[in-house]
């Protein structure tokens, strides 16, 4: 009888030990935990962020790294970095490739130190998560293009890195629905790579400075002076009437270009998802002549918007619908304008 009691006690002890081990996360488990994507398809409107929720089987002691590839229509990873400078320069630098529909807010394979992850090509991003996590989120930003279009589908692939702290191999999808608005958005853009000194014409105190101003029935009501592109909005709830939009070149900051004569400038009028019109107004802004602040009083052009409810008619000074700009007198003085800058 005593032997039986001892045997039962031993069995109970072993069972309790095994249960404790199975439920003690401090003891390293064999293998690697699997990562499951809980929502493999996410639907958003242009400009919104698509969030994928991931679940890890169990927590691990080391950070988890997940590779993210944006796929083309054939299911192949898109290239997201290209060598900077001459292909044979060997400088080891890479530039980020701008994608058409999404922005991935994680470091590229290059920025993450691709040798560490075993990559030899210019595809993929790396999302890094702290140790001990069992719930993860991957956020992908979608881009708002204002152009009327059908729902777009972007596929991505989530895979394990060579560090392999956890395993995942999933293809997920983002359905991007058209952004529609009854407001009129005006955007002025002069970005590009055309200045002799190599600086970004949109970036910094020494860049080119172009502006938008809005007038309602002749009264100065709004402006956009410090962005690139500059942007103004006439809301659908704003009063009906006549609006005038001035697009102007404020200063060249002494910049020159051997590749372009005029500042390559476009003005876009859009009722997002419904109407989109782009106009080239480069001829109004000869770079060598400088801007208003540089003494060139011709560096300004005006468009007129007639608002009736949510219908907008955009014309130039000759009453031709969004054809070409014209030179215009100042609406506010240069001194007044400087107060806003």
Textual characterization of the structure:
The chain contains 3 helices and 21 strands. It has a 6-stranded mixed sheet with strand order 2-12-11-4-9-8, with no helix packed on it. It has a 5-stranded antiparallel sheet with strand order 15-14-17-20-21, with no helix packed on it. Strands 1-3-10-7 form a 4-stranded antiparallel sheet, with no helix packed on it. It has helices at 2-22, 114-117, 334-340; strands at residues 35-37, 41-45, 49-56, 64-70, 81-83, 94-96, 102-103, 107-108, 125-129, 135-142, 152-160, 169-177, 184-189, 209-216, 219-224, 230-234, 241-251, 266-271, 275-280, 300-308, 311-315. The model is unreliable at 6-27 and 323-330 (pLDDT under 50). With 341 residues, the protein is mainly beta. A hairpin with an 8-residue loop joins strand 11 and strand 12.
Give a quick rundown of the structure.
By secondary structure, the chain is mainly beta.
